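Q: what sequence does this backbone want?
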């Protein structure tokens, strides 16, 4: 990423909010850990004046497993073109963390009544060849999805006032409803008592069941998420050719 176009993960969201509000929700670690699905805990470490900010992060992978790491960040709050940038380097010594070390940036670009909030980051996986394959097939797509989903959850928080906890509950509810529809459509579970409730019209409805179930499957699989439900698909996931890593990234040493 040093002076080259970013080739790692890229996510961009357009958020209708003030630049200062977006900056606060993303730079304050207490607020950041609320909306970012990738982190369970983020805390700043003590620093001397003028030094980059060091931080510690943790991610709960399973109910009984948490992996942690450290990082260093620096930001350019005011730039002549009105944009802002925050860059970081990070690493995790935890042997069960596939992510060994990496770097990335956030960029805030005013766009009319909104802000284009974008990130680009990349990392080096551990575990040798197995880790490289697992990263390419599973972990990297999952990280890209989690980043985009989190950006949309942040957007809902700023635009609609939907707290991150409520957004997660809505997403889980909608996911559960879609799963229930698929189970009923594929197995017919609970369908017979439902048809009987229509009395003399039950036989007629039974003839329409295959068509109705097919429609239900299509809706469950293809219908867009509700407007108040966070969704990764609302974010741009492909980096424009002209996007480059910020210069401030070069000033950060690899975290210890």
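A:
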């Amino acid at each position: 990423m040093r002076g080259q176009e970013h080739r790692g993960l890229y996510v961009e969201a357009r958020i209708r909010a003030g630049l200062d509000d977006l900056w606060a929700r993303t730079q304050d670690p207490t607020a950041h850990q609320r909306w970012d699905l990738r982190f369970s805990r983020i805390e700043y470490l003590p620093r001397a004046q003028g030094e980059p900010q060091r931080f510690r992060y943790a991610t709960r992978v399973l109910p009984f497993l948490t992996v942690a790491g450290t990082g260093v960040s620096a930001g350019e709050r005011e730039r002549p073109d009105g944009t802002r940038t925050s860059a970081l380097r990070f690493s995790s010594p935890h042997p069960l963390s596939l992510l060994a070390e990496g770097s990335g940036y956030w960029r805030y670009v005013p766009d009319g009544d909104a802000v284009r909030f974008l990130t680009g980051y990349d990392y080096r996986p551990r575990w040798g060849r197995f880790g490289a394959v697992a990263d390419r097939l599973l972990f990297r797509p999952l990280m890209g999805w989690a980043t985009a989903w989190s950006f949309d959850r942040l957007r809902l928080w700023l635009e609609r006032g939907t707290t991150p906890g409520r957004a997660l509950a809505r997403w889980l509810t909608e996911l559960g409803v879609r799963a229930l529809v698929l189970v009923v459509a594929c197995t017919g579970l609970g369908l017979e008592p439902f048809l009987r409730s229509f009395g003399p019209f039950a036989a007629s409805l039974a003839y329409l069941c295959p068509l109705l179930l097919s429609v239900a499957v299509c809706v469950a699989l293809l219908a867009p998420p509700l407007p108040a439900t966070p969704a990764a698909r609302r974010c741009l996931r492909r980096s424009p050719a002209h996007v480059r890593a910020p210069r401030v990234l070069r000033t950060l040493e690899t975290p210890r």
